[in-house]
Design a protein that fits this description.
Blueprint (H helix, E strand, L loop, with lengths): L1 H14 L13 E5 L8 E3 H6 L9 E9 L4 E7 L2 E7 L4 H10 L1 H6 L1 H8 L1 E4 L5 E3 H35 L21 H36 L2 E2 L2
Antiparallel strand pairs: 1-3, 2-3, 3-4, 4-5, 5-8, 6-7
Length: 229
């Protein structure tokens, strides 16, 4: 009965394993901020070229940054006659962007140092860094879901074998043979412990990888610029 309940729980967690970042749409905007004294409150087209900011935006005119009370920033980008909005909820986002602009020339000579300093693991569509700091924040909300998926997928085969052991359909000759030449099967409780520890460990590793991949995809999607008008 317990095994049936566990399987049902795992299936439920796997099916409901949706990765969303509600804090990207639920936040309190504070006020315009100066991300760096080198650009002032508004990044114009010339400064955009100088510091290689938002190069994927066509017909760029200006960008204005707004602090978010809970951490991160929102940027309003004028592109032609369109207003685009993008949000970055990494708690280190302002500091990373300020460092990038303030030390732009040095960073171009050694970008790897900059990426190691801020533990940058990827970049979003607008070319802004995604740091390990934000990935860890995402994990706290979705890690158990990924682990459940990993444990479920990896555990199918070993748990099937475990069932065979439990009903006496499989014996292992791990301990050699007795004097009579008969094989010595592993006791059921040892099989249960070994297989389930292995399943849990492997599931946790795969679960973490699932979480990381899902987190990066969710963050990139949440950061996509949307048209205001």
């Amino acid at each position: 009965m317990k095994r049936v309940v566990a399987v049902v729980v795992l299936i439920a967690l796997t099916i409901n394993c949706t990765y969303t970042l509600k804090h990207y749409t639920d936040y309190n905007e504070v006020q315009p901020i100066t991300v760096s004294e080198r650009v002032g409150e508004v990044v114009d087209a010339e400064e955009r070229e100088q510091f290689d900011l938002y190069s994927v935006i066509s017909d760029f005119k200006s960008a204005t940054f707004y602090a978010i009370q809970e951490g991160g920033y929102k940027v309003k980008i004028m592109a032609g006659d369109k207003m685009l909005i993008a949000v970055n909820r990494d708690s280190q986002a302002v500091a990373v962007l300020r460092d990038y602009i303030d030390r732009y020339e040095d960073i171009q000579r050694s970008r790897e140092v900059f990426e190691r300093r801020w533990k940058i693991i990827d970049y979003d569509t607008l070319g802004q860094p995604i740091t390990l700091n934000e990935l860890k924040s995402f994990r706290r909300n979705s890690y158990s879901c990924g682990c459940a998926s990993g444990a479920w997928l990896v555990g199918l085969v070993p748990n099937f074998l475990l069932s065979l052991v439990a009903i006496g359909g499989l014996t292992w000759n791990m301990f050699g043979t007795s004097e009579s030449g008969l094989s010595r099967p592993i006791p059921g409780w040892i099989s249960f412990i070994v297989i389930n520890i292995g399943t849990a460990a492997t599931g946790a590793i795969i679960g973490r990888r699932l979480d990381d991949k899902a987190a990066l995809s969710a963050i990139k999607e949440a950061r996509l610029p949307r048209k205001l008008y």
